[in-house]
Amino acid sequence: MEWRASHILVKDRKLAEEILNRLKRGNNFSVLAREHSTCPSRARGGDLGWFGPGKMVKEFEQAVTKSPNRLLPKAVRTQFGFHIIKKTGER
User: Fold this and answer.
1) Contact 9, 38 (CB under 8 A)
2) What gap in Å lies between CA 42 and CA 29, rounded to an integer?
3) What confidence tens digit (pLDDT) does each residue in 53-82 have?
4) Which helix or strand (DSSP H or E) is residue 87 part of?
5) Sheet of strand 81-90: strand arrangement
6) At what angle do helices 13-24 and 29-36 cross, to 10 degrees?
7) How far apart are CA 70 and CA 50, in angstroms?
8) What is the pLDDT of residue 76?
9) What H or E segment, with its residue span, contains residue 9?
10) Which pLDDT value is given to residue 60?
11) What is the C-alpha separation between 51 and 89, in angstroms, rounded?
12) How far is residue 89's CA from residue 87's CA, in Å, rounded to a whole number?
């Protein structure tokens, strides 16, 4: 099994919640990723591509594998910060 996801990584929980609220109001995920994410994937609008088991940190992988293809309802905290995740595929 593989999954595809995009994310916006930020250090601050408050900023993560603000971005998530903007997304829920219809703002463009890719634009917000380019503006706010601290991850190099920001250049691709947050797209992480396809990944399999064990390729992402545990908390991130668990959130993606348990979710349907959509924006996850809350930010996921890992050792890197807070991830706003949009699952975009599964195969």
Assistant:
1) yes
2) 10
3) 999 999 999 999 998 889 999 999 999 999
4) strand 81-90
5) 47-51, 3-10, 81-90, 76-78
6) 160
7) 15
8) 97
9) strand 3-10
10) 97
11) 10
12) 6
Q: What pLDDT sits at residue 89? A: 96
For 11-80, strand residue ranges (E) read 47-51, 76-78
CA 22 from chain centre, in angstroms, equals: 14
57: Cα within 13 Å, side-chain hemisphere: 10
Paired tokens of 6: 């995009």
Convert the pLDDT of each residue in 16-47 to its tens digit.
999 999 999 999 999 999 999 999 999 999 99
How many Å apart are CA 22 and CA 62, to the nearest integer? 24
- pTM of the predicted structure, to 2 decimals: 0.95
Say what the pLDDT of residue 34 is: 98
Report d(CA 2, CA 79) in Å as an integer.
23
State the Cα–Cα distance between residues 74 and 91, nearest whole angstrom. 24
**What single string gives the DSSP state of each residue in 31-54?**
HHHHHH--SGGGGGTTEEEEE-TT
